[in-house]
Amino acid sequence: MYPFEKHNKLQGGVNAIFSSLNKNRNSSQVNHKRRIRRASERRKKVSQSSFPVLSTK
Q1: Residue spans with biased composition (Polar residues) (predicted)?
Q2: pLDDT 10s digits, 6-33
Q3: Are 45 and 52 in contact (CB under 8 A)?
Q4: Cα–Cα distance list, 51 to 3, 6, 13, 47 (Å)
């Protein structure tokens, strides 16, 4: 086993770890955006239902 082969194997493992971390980070960001969108929609619904006089005008 040559040293550069060993290095390539290690580098591959490190890259795999980093790619999985990045995937997790991206999915959590997407979920966070979805949550924010849902919360804003809920807020709109609540404001419309709590102020029926304003919404009818």
Answers
A1: 20-30, 47-57
A2: 667 777 777 787 787 777 777 777 777 8
A3: no
A4: 72, 68, 57, 6
